[in-house]
């Protein structure tokens, strides 16, 4: 015998950039996919710090559109350059 529950599964319908609010999902993807639960072709900035670090227990998660991610990449590159490291 199977027991069933009438649960509606959570479906991701869009993913928005945490910086500018634009959708990170190309329009044709949204038109051709019922849900975006498996969509992973976008920029994510993520960190979680554990015990002993200066930011003990903090965690960060930012979803980023292509444009904002590129700006972040440029920022990292300029940080590398100012530390004398070339990309
Ligand atoms: Zn953005």
Fold blueprint:
Layout: H1 27-32, E1 43-48, E2 59-64, H2 66-82
Antiparallel strand pairs: 1-2
Zinc ion binds at residues 17, 19-20, 22, 64-65, 67-68.
Report on this model:
- This protein is α+β, with helices and mostly antiparallel strands.
- The chain has a domain at 27-82.
- Helix content is 26%, strand content 14%.
- It contains two helices and two strands.
- It has helices at 27-32, 66-82, and strands spanning 43-48, 59-64.
- It has a two-stranded antiparallel ribbon with strand order 1-2.
- The longest helix is centred in the C-terminal third of the chain and has 17 residues, at 66-82.
- It is flat.
- Residues 17, 19-20, 22, 64-65, 67-68 line the site of zinc ion (ZN).
- Zinc ion binds at residues 17, 19-20, 22, 64-65, 67-68.
Please sum up the structure shown.
The protein is of the alpha+beta class and 87 residues long.
Could you give the order of strands across the largest sheet? 1-2
Report the helical percentage.
25-40%
The gross shape turns out to be flat
H-E string: HEEH
What is the radius of gyration computed over CA atoms, rounded to a whole number of angstroms? Answer: 19 Å
Task: Sum up the structure in keywords.
single chain, 14% strand, 2 helices, 87 residues, binds zinc ion, alpha+beta, flat, two-stranded antiparallel ribbon
């Amino acid at each position: 015998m199977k027991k069933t529950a009438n649960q509606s599964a959570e479906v991701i319908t869009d993913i928005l950039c945490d910086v500018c609010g634009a959708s990170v999902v190309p329009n044709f993807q949204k038109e051709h996919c019922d849900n975006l639960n498996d969509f992973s072709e976008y920029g994510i900035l993520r960190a979680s710090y554990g015990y002993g670090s200066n930011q003990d227990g903090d965690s960060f998660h930012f979803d980023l559109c292509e444009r904002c991610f590129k700006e972040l990449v440029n920022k990292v590159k300029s940080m590398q350059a100012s530390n004398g490291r070339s990309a």
